[in-house]
Amino acid sequence: MFPDGVTSSGAQGTLTNLSVQVGTSCPLGVPQMEMNETYQLIVSPDNSQAVITAQEVWGALRGLETFSHLVFNSAPNTYQVRSANVVDHPRFPHRGILLDTARHFLPVGMILRNLDLMAQNKFNVFHWHIVDTEAFPYESVAFPDLSKKGAYTPNHVYHQADIKRVIAYARLRGIRVIVEFDTPGHMGSWGLGQPGLLSDCFYDNKTVNPLKNIVDPTKNETWSFLTTLFNEILSVFPDNYIHMGGDEVLENVKTCWLNNPQVQNYMNQKGYGTDYTQLENEYFNKLLNMVQGARNNTKVVVWQEVLDNNVNAPGAIAHVWKGNTSTEMMEEMANVTKAGHYAILSSCWYLNYIKYGNDWGYINNSWVRERGMYYQCDPTGFDGTDQQKSLVLGGEAVMWAEFVDATNLIPRLWPRASAAGERLWSDPAQTTSADLAWPRLHEFRCRMLRRGYPVEPPNLPSYCPQPWDPDYDFDDVSNTMSTTTPSGAAALVASSLLSISNAVILFLAVRLC
Amino acid sequence: MFPDGVTSSGAQGTLTNLSVQVGTSCPLGVPQMEMNETYQLIVSPDNSQAVITAQEVWGALRGLETFSHLVFNSAPNTYQVRSANVVDHPRFPHRGILLDTARHFLPVGMILRNLDLMAQNKFNVFHWHIVDTEAFPYESVAFPDLSKKGAYTPNHVYHQADIKRVIAYARLRGIRVIVEFDTPGHMGSWGLGQPGLLSDCFYDNKTVNPLKNIVDPTKNETWSFLTTLFNEILSVFPDNYIHMGGDEVLENVKTCWLNNPQVQNYMNQKGYGTDYTQLENEYFNKLLNMVQGARNNTKVVVWQEVLDNNVNAPGAIAHVWKGNTSTEMMEEMANVTKAGHYAILSSCWYLNYIKYGNDWGYINNSWVRERGMYYQCDPTGFDGTDQQKSLVLGGEAVMWAEFVDATNLIPRLWPRASAAGERLWSDPAQTTSADLAWPRLHEFRCRMLRRGYPVEPPNLPSYCPQPWDPDYDFDDVSNTMSTTTPSGAAALVASSLLSISNAVILFLAVRLC
After folding, report:
1. Which residues carry out catalysis (chains A, B) (predicted)?
2. What domain count does chain A have?
């Protein structure tokens, strides 16, 4: 059970202090894409010392999380810590989870609990898909009717104070909040509180299709509305990036743009004919210019179609979600980066698609979107140049909420998302085998469970032992989840254990900034 | 929103009393297969009276549940009840949920919460698949080593007091507890605490297969052990029925019976040669005789293979679990009943198989086991005589626990199991359409959620309104889940509403017996 020469009571000293040394003072603002998450963690058996060193506080947070993974409850009320010398930094700067609060509403408390789990898994981006066709829960100061009429009920609204709370909570965990206001499609709920915003739709020249879902980009009123709204949004969400959506426009183009006489008239005047991509590109060029000009340093993420259609958006990140097979997904990544765009990948991490079995790393030899194998996905696993691969900023696990709300979010998302988390943080050479990851994932799932989060069992029949149970296997957890390092500099001195005092345990609950 | 002429404040009187009239005194024992669940419920607008009449207390419990479904929280702190005249009884006497506490352990509290939800959905059998290959959490008085060595850990054990608590809790909700001790296969964990019980297994004549999983039925010691153990089990579990398992024996026959020289020797002596079914039948004939003789009125349920193989077991219920397509499932039911056996069906209700979408009533036009459509399954939907159909006693939704534990049981099982519940309780003519059931299911899911159970959203994007929200649709809920009746006698006078006093609300929390 224990490494050679060590028993659960065989600690080589007592750790009474964990020193955290940060090179720069605490930032006043939120973490940004450029944040430095590098840290060094030394837990030394020689002098019973533990030190975390980091250039920025964000690295120190990651180091504290790793330190907590080294702590074991080796007997009732007895804690020990594994000695270690870890030099660690993330493989990718953008490691996200998308939550969709439009298909089903999520109470703020559930969002906060999910932020806890994200931090435990070293995710650093909460992509908040806050509104969609079905509901508009964002409370706008400038346009209060948007949520008054577009939210499911007055109970299903994120007030300004709620949003501030989410952003502050995320910041303390080194997590960015990137909000998405998806346009020009997926806007059905916007029209309820802002009449005239959406294009009228027609099955043919005469028959009205009542399901409006796409903006009317031809009206001046649309632009004054969007300008005011996005100015507000950029003042509420401090991340430099904003996600501008842009997916699945084609679904509404025929009935709402091409069959709409006013829109068609505008397209004819512009010489677009029936080429909707020219209208869409005009829309996005105006929109992105407006947004990027509204606040210094504003940058955008868009669903890949926007860039596939050659909108002019220098510096934009393409959010890749297309491709049903691994081959198709990698072709999408190759194409997007070949066109010179930054890219993040979600195609392989559609965690809303559930299936029977341990889908985080297994299911089927053919790796397709609906069959899991999240651990097998590598965002740079495409044929391309080094230059192309340097454009890959990371990825996001997505949890579209057609069948998800506060009742099932956490057990459904975790620990399946942990598989994506490890691939996004860790050295690819050390994270190619689901078989090797399995014991780590099992141990880490039990750790999250003991912390009070109902994360589901990822394995075949199993149980979470108390760490002091005789069959608890210390060897299996010598590499904790998400702490393998790109540089390979991690050294967990598994044969050395230190007792740990309550003072250190308590420290982990203390804010650094 | 409201029925014609009624507003949310338009109550036609105030209900201050709910009278419950039961024809027989409260039983001292537990409910049994023969329990009478018929009831009449009258909520009358004329004299502001509500009466439940039932022959037995079990019917009164069902009537109270239905009454609770008629109560609406029509404004904050204001309750109203729909007037009604319901004559109701279940379509099938056996309406079960199988929980598997061997693949993952379930704490007692989680089993109790599931019993609450079963009662709310008018299920009346908790099929407790308590042990299996992976773990033996049942604490035996006669053989304490079975759980000491066969349970995952000492924390993963059902003590005798736990079992008494579960049975008492179920009884108060009119729910039978049928325990299953699956033999002769699926017994791996038994061998840990009872050496010599399982057959030695061999890949060939010499190479040992260490994975023992099937009993050695040829030893006298086996029979003295089984006799003592099952005598104990029958004294612990008071239901007249016990589930004796018997599935998937073939998986271990080759290596553990046919390749085992001692077993093969025995089979040769008996003249069975290599026909394992003769040995299996001998085993079951002895076992069932022993069990049925150990306690008056003991009857058995067995997985269908036992009866398919022509074991002599008069009065046994065949638990049908085979068939991947609806055609195959119905052929299994036809075959089993043609052979004269009682039958319950689970093949179509394998709720452990999850998939993306609203699988309770939809997914795919081809109805196969892994694709949901639980609402479409009718246990008598096979070609057969009336005599055959009269042998169908009901069905069970099963939740095998390879990937299920306390973290995800409730949101994964409910309200998907509600679809099976309605088909098992209600008139088949009134329950053929998932489209018609959808609003009922949605309303009932929200009701379970308000009662504090995290049951997941069964639908596409949606939300649970407060009942007094202006878009709450009373019309959609005029037929509450599981109260349509076989006789068609239900009459919910939807245009009449009564206010309801707190005295009546509180009554629903009071024990009848």
Report:
1. 248 (proton donor)
2. 2
Contacts 24+ apart (CB under 8 A), B279-284: B279/B217, B280/B184, B280/B249, B280/B306, B280/B309, B280/B311, B281/B309, B281/B310, B281/B311, B281/B312, B282/B217, B283/B184, B283/B215, B283/B217, B284/B244, B284/B246, B284/B311, B284/B313
Tens of pLDDT, residues B165-220:
999 999 999 999 999 999 999 999 999 999 999 999 998 877 888 889 999 999 99
Q: What is the CATH number of the domain that holds B35?
A: 3.30.379
For A465, nearest residue in chain B (alpha carbons): B153
Q: Does A151 touch chain B (CB under 8 A)?
A: no
Rounded to two decimals, the ipTM of the complex is: 0.91
User: How would you classify the pairing of strands A317-320 and A208-209?
Assistant: unpaired
Structural domain of B43: 1-89+485-513
Residue B468 domain-assigned (yes or no): no
Q: Considering CB atoms only, which of A152, A353, A455 is closest to B356? A: A353
Q: Is the pTM of this model over 0.80?
A: yes
How close A457 comes to chain B (CA, Å)?
Answer: 6
* CATH code: domain of residue A156: 3.20.20.80
Q: Are residues A362 and A503 in the same domain?
A: no
| Nearest chain A CA: its distance from B38 CA (Å) | 34
- Find the closest chain B residue to A409 by CA distance: B456
**Residue B107 belongs to a domain:** no
Here the tokens at position A8 are: 């659960």
Query: Which residues are within 8 A (CB) of B108 and not within 5 positions of it... i.e. 6 or more apart?
Result: B158, B162, B165, B166
* Token pair recorded at residue A32: 């940004």
The per-residue b/e assignment along A400-438, b for 16 or more CB within 10 angstroms, e otherwise, is: bbbbbbbbbbbbbbbbbbbbbbbbbbbbeebbeebeebb
Contact between residue B288 and residue B243 where contact means Cβ atoms under 8 Å apart: no
Q: Does B463 touch chain A (CB under 8 A)?
A: yes
Interface with chain B: mutation pick from A405, A455, A472, highest number of B CBs within 10 Å: A405
A98 and A18, same structural domain?
Answer: no
Q: What is the pLDDT of residues B338-350, one digit of tens each?
A: 999 999 999 999 9
- CB interface of B with A, residues 396-455, below 8 Å: 401-408, 411-412, 449, 454-455
